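Example (one chain per record):
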Amino acid sequence: MLSYWLMGLVDGGWSWAFASRHWLADDVRHRFASSTDRVAAAAPPAMSIADWARLPALMRNVEVDIPRQRLYLNEGKAHRLAFVVSTGINISTPRGAFHVIEKLQDPPYGLRGIYAAPGSQDNPLGAAWIGLNARHWRTGTPIGIHGTNEPERLGTPVSHGCVRLKNDDVLQLLQHVPDNCPVVIHD
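Predicted structure:
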């Protein structure tokens, strides 16, 4: 069944509501009618870390802890899965609240004059790509969560800005992360 997490402005702050295509118009309009006429069903607006902290207790979300080099798949604030990652060198991994905009298994790679076919051993994206609505602060290239062809380097910040995981781990994450899933990256 097609379903959405919807955001609407309520009492000066963003509020989340769950909706399906069978249950959308009246309940959502009623929930958000007191504050706004706008309801976004596709991509949520930019979310602050404070907004992320107020997510509903059962909502799935991803947390990337840069100092610990860990990624957590949470249900509310409870860690359900934890993975060792490699984030960017220095400040190349953006901090803040984002959301998932794309999910690909066996993605192709074509950046910095290098091309690697899907599934090849040379592909630095590994087995999967989970794209975020984030860009590298200097180059403007997309930032995402992906596999790696260098698993021995996980646990230390060595990427160009993305979040790397073991290929088995990113495939597991890909199965559990919903579209538009909130992602927070923090120090």
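Caption: The CA atoms of residues 15 and 153 lie 39 Å apart.
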